Amino acid sequence: MHLVYCFRRIFLQPIRPKKIEKPNIVFIFIDDMGWKDVGFMGAEYYETPNIDKLAKNGMIFTQAYANAPNCAPTRACLLSGQYSPRHGVFTVARSDRGDPKDRRLIPIQNSTTVGLEHIFISEALKLAGYRSAAIGKWNVGNSPRHKVSTWIFRGLDFKGILIPKGNTLQII
What we know:
This protein is of the alpha+beta class. It is built from six helices and four strands.
């Protein structure tokens, strides 16, 4: 009888997978920030208690590099998961700016927009049930501030900018 019970228990009972909670993801992307400009990395001048708390209770990555030398292509790479030759954003604004006689290289054709055919991380996260927000500079074209339908299409649930107000920053 025990053998029949064990067989039924092992093979005929529905398997109930454990409910796995999805982790929260907070990705802070800051232009021109040094590796030692936060408390948990040893900053003595800057006080960053909230970021330090996030770092203490979460996961930090200390071995990384930017995909480009300035903001727009770096953001485009981060958001799309692709290098510049794939999405076409190589620099901020036009790549042929400045006096041509001072240029030593022929500039590559540059896009100031990541095409809608490129999937952003926010779109992939939305499919996995996450809600996402972008707060601050956008710099990858199709400005969410001006074209609400574009940033909703990109998987973002909220897009805001930081405005100084007194001693704090207000998100609008």
